[in-house]
Every structure is written in structure tokens, then in C-alpha cells.
């Protein structure tokens, strides 16, 4: 028996951006497996072409950020954006593209992932990553890595070579060795800059954002609950056929407890992709997990019929407390949005029609 979808918009006393909407005259059987009215509309719409967006984290990024901290990150974003654009132009799949870009970000010590991962309270690294294919909704995630050079590639292997989605700590390390993934001694990931960051965080008795400016012991605004850790890196991409993928990688919070897991490897929190959009979030993991940030962007598009920009803006500006989140997202139609409710977010994007952007702080139009 076919169950008709209600033709009227449901009225409820909640945030209007969360009110569900369905199209008239549709029934679930006529839409095909796993497809909703919104997805059918996207498939039929004229696409804008390929698009890519990436981030190097957001947070309380001072406008007076020293050039020696700003310029290398901007240069890396520019390099990684070109790498991703060239890959899309050469017809690589979005899944290959986001892995490629995030690997490059992981290999750059200026970002909090891979080589630049921040340290736990014990002075060790515990890296995590996630990757998701919007076309198949297959995904893989890893946490607690101490020796794996590129966590994002291990996450993809979890997706492709195991019946599982998420591996962590000793099991993930063993899986990496079994599959010939490149590993290095844990000391490779412990940089002088991150040793100093940990020292500052311990002196201030805080779990600290990567981009937080150094604090003195006598400063009284230290927050023992922690700031947004927004040194996370991520990438989302869509090709000319509307296929989508998302990838995110991080070292977590400065001075975090050993064993802490953030939003990055949790599907629907820090990373998500389906046939409508791909999202990579960055911010305070606990706030992003509570807000199911990445999935909610897709859900607003799917059930409310919002555009990508409307959905992402609603989540970032209304659902998550200020100072806690930023994200990059692309839609199947080639749209891009990069909202954040922090002071700034290292970000870059490009589209097939020639638009390109590399930025840190809000633009004038914001």
C-alpha cells in the first residue's frame, strides 16, 4: 500500500528553519530507492559544474595574526586548492579529490592534522579522520592514531576493505600495518610549535584552540571547558555529474584528555555526504556532535527544501552557539557555502565557472 506524503506543511512551535516540508502529489514508491522529492529535483536541475571547498580550521583568529603564522597557511590553501581543481579537471572522482587534498593538508605542519597535530595532556598525538562518498553513502573513520602519516587514507581503507565504518586506537594502528599504510615513529608528529602550545595550555589550565594567542598565567579568562579546536582540515567536492564527497582530518584539542574523540570521525557530526550535499565541519567537537551539524545541513535541504546556503547558515548561525563552528559545503548542483560563527576560518574554494576565493576573516558582504 502506498503511503502518500502529506501535502501540507507541518506547523510547529520550533525554529522555522527546522519545519519540514514535502511536495504535493508524491508517494514514496514513485521516488525510487532512497530518494526523496528534493533529490529528484536536484537530479533534474541544470548543474553549475564541478566545485570544491576546503578549510584549515576556524576559531578566534586575531586580525593581527603574525605574518609568519598567516602566510604559510594561505600559501598551503592556495596550493591545495589548485591541486583539487586540477584533479577535478582531469576527471578524478570527488572521493579521490577530497582524499588527495586532505592528505596534502595533513602533510603541512601549519595545520592541526597529520604532521601538525596538536598534543594531548600527556604530550602525545591522537589523530582522527573521516571520509564519505555521497553517491554510495559509504564511509570510513579512524581515531586515536599515533603513527599513521595520513589518517584520511586509512579512513578510506576502513571504508573499502572492512565491513565496518569506524576503527580506533590499537585496532586502527594494527589495521594500518596490515595494509601497508605508511607509518612513522610518533616523534615525527611532535613539533616544537605544538610542544609550546601544550605548555601554554597547561599553564593556563585550559583545553585550547590551535589558533588561540598565547595566554599568561594571570589572565582570568581561561576557560577550563575549552575553546573551539578549529585547526581541523577538510575538503568537499562535487563533479560535473553531481557526485559528492567529504573528508575531514584533525589532531583534536590542545591539552585534550587521552582517549578523547571529537566530531571529525563521527558521521553526521563533523563529516557527511549524500546525493544532495557534502559537508566538512570544524570547531569545538562537543558542540558539533550535540548539533549533528553536518547531517542537519543535509536534512534541512532534504526535508525542508532549503538551498545549501540557507541550510548551512541556519545551522551555523542558529543551531550552534557562537564561537563554536564553521563548515564548508557543496551541493550536487555545484553551489558552495563556507559559513562560520567564529572570528575567522581558513578557507578556500573554486567553481567551474571561474570563481575562486581564499580567505580567513569575514568578507565585507558578511
Describe the structure concisely:
The strands form two sheets. The chain has an eight-stranded mixed β-sheet with strand order 4-3-2-6-5-1-11-12. Strands 7-8-9-10 form a four-stranded antiparallel β-sheet.
Q: How would you explain this protein's 3D organization?
A:
This protein is α+β, with helices and mostly antiparallel strands and 366 residues long. Helices cover 30% and strands 19% of the residues. The chain contains nine helices and twelve strands. It has helices at 37-44, 67-89, 94-106, 151-161, 169-178, 192-203, 285-291, 293-304, 308-319; strands at 51-59, 127-133, 139-145, 166-168, 233-238, 244-250, 271-273, 277-283, 325-331, 336-337, 344-351, 356-359. Strands 4-3-2-6-5-1-11-12 form an eight-stranded mixed sheet. The protein has a four-stranded antiparallel sheet with strand order 7-8-9-10. Strand 2 (127-133) and strand 3 form a beta hairpin. It is globular and about 50 Å long.
Topology:
Layout: H1 37-44, E1 51-59, H2 67-89, H3 94-106, E2 127-133, E3 139-145, H4 151-161, E4 166-168, H5 169-178, H6 192-203, E5 233-238, E6 244-250, E7 271-273, E8 277-283, H7 285-291, H8 293-304, H9 308-319, E9 325-331, E10 336-337, E11 344-351, E12 356-359
Parallel strand pairs: 3-4
Antiparallel strand pairs: 1-5, 1-11, 2-3, 2-6, 5-6, 7-8, 8-9, 9-10, 11-12
Helix pairs in contact: 2-3, 3-4, 8-9
